[in-house]
Design brief:
- With 325 residues, the chain is α/β, with parallel strands linked by helices.
- The protein folds into 2 domains: 140 residues, ATPase, nucleotide binding domain (Nucleotidyltransferase, domain 5, 2-Layer Sandwich), CATH 3.30.420.40; 162 residues, Nucleotidyltransferase, domain 5 (2-Layer Sandwich), CATH 3.30.420.40.
- The chain is built from 9 helices and 13 strands.
- The strands form 3 sheets. Strands 3-2-1-4-7-13 form a 6-stranded mixed beta sheet, sandwiched between helices. Strands 10-9-8-11-12 form a 5-stranded mixed beta sheet, with helices on both faces.
- Strand 1 and strand 2 form a beta hairpin.
- Helix 3 crosses helix 9, helix 5 packs antiparallel against helix 7 and helix 6 crosses helix 7.
- It is globular, with a radius of gyration of 19 Å.
């Protein structure tokens, strides 16, 4: 019997993943469906329910004690609703209520945003483990994050605290879809790294890869335009990280997501830029590390949220919004 088994859902614009996770972070059962992001809200909900149906069919399901959800946002954890930017049909969608019913109506359900989920995962099992004050980020198609303060996850009232991607780091910069100007995401996300390189004359290699991964490969080979695009992204990330550190005194920033896969192409200029921005005595020792939980971060963070009401793991989120069965 798995006494601490929980169900986890990781909901994004591309896929809906589910898992049964044990108390040590082991993933025992997996299920996945593509996200029908361009279809009706009910169609998306049915995809979530199909993933849950696979999990509930497992012989391990009777040992499940809670359900955790990490969702693309914005989310409203206090209301149990989600309005993901990349799932247009879901606006104030009552996701917690639907999951609660689909899971049998007997289990507590906890909801967090995907950035907060990554912070929970990294603090539990990853690079932020043992740190009481941390910012954990995902840099991919977008830029998101979550905070650990005083040894505990800090999701904020609605579950969106730590959303570093929409800190403005360029007052005269481009308008962001969020309505702001010069946001970290507008400069440092994968699509914008690639766009900037292409606009400045970079051309892909024989494989035709025009994504940030293609730019990273060119940067590793010494292409000056590709290197400059990553330098600019690193500068934006450093400015956002330093601002966060100055505000709340974090001592580590953990960076994951597809863009972090560029390795030293990103982290070397990021650490160099951070020395220019994090200059006050109480943030000067701030470290930056790559995330360790990889593509399972969303599931592991959702599992951490699910167990929060019992707080079996130090530093996991307490009182995260949701519906108790």
């Amino acid at each position: 019997m798995h006494s601490e088994l929980v169900a986890a859902l990781d909901i994004g614009g591309t896929k809906i993943a589910g898992a049964l996770v044990d108390g040590a972070g082991g993933i025992l059962v997996r299920a996945q469906r593509p996200t029908p992001a361009g279809e009706s809200g009910e169609t998306v909900a049915r995809a979530v329910e199909a993933v849950l149906a696979e999990l509930t069919a497992s012989p391990l399901w009777p040992d499940v004690r809670a359900v955790g959800i990490g969702s693309a946002g914005p989310v409203d954890a206090s209301a149990g609703t989600v309005s993901p930017v990349n799932v247009p049909a879901w606006r104030n969608f009552p996701l917690v209520e639907r999951v609660h019913r689909a899971a049998g109506g007997r289990l507590p359900v906890r909801l967090v945003g995907d950035g907060v989920a990554i912070a929970a995962a990294e603090h539990w099992l990853g690079a932020a483990r043992g740190h009481d004050n941390a910012l954990c980020m995902v840099v991919s198609t977008g830029v998101g994050g979550g905070l650990v303060l005083g040894g505990r996850l800090h999701p904020g009232p609605t579950g969106n605290a730590g959303h570093i991607g929409h800190i403005s780091v360029d007052l005269d910069g481009e308008r962001c879809p969020c309505g702001g100007r010069g946001c970290v995401e507008r400069i440092a996300s994968g699509p914008h790294i690639a766009r900037r390189a292409l606009e400045n004359g970079w051309r892909p290699g024989p494989d035709g890869d025009t994504t940030a991964a293609g730019v990273a490969a060119a940067a590793r080979a010494g292409d000056p335009v590709a290197l400059a695009s990553f330098e600019r992204a690193a500068q934006a990330l450093a400015a956002g990280i330093a601002a966060t550190a100055t505000l709340v005194e974090i001592d580590i920033a953990v960076v994951g997501g597809g863009v972090a896969g560029a390795g030293d192409v990103l982290f070397t200029p990021l650490r160099r830029a951070l020395r220019d921005y994090a200059t006050l005595s109480f943030v000067r020792d701030l470290s930056v590390a790559p995330a360790r939980t990889g593509t399972d971060a969303g599931l592991l963070g959702a599992a951490a949220a699910a167990t929060a009401h019992r707080d079996p793991h130090p530093g996991l989120p307490a009182g995260v919004g949701g519906l108790t069965g």
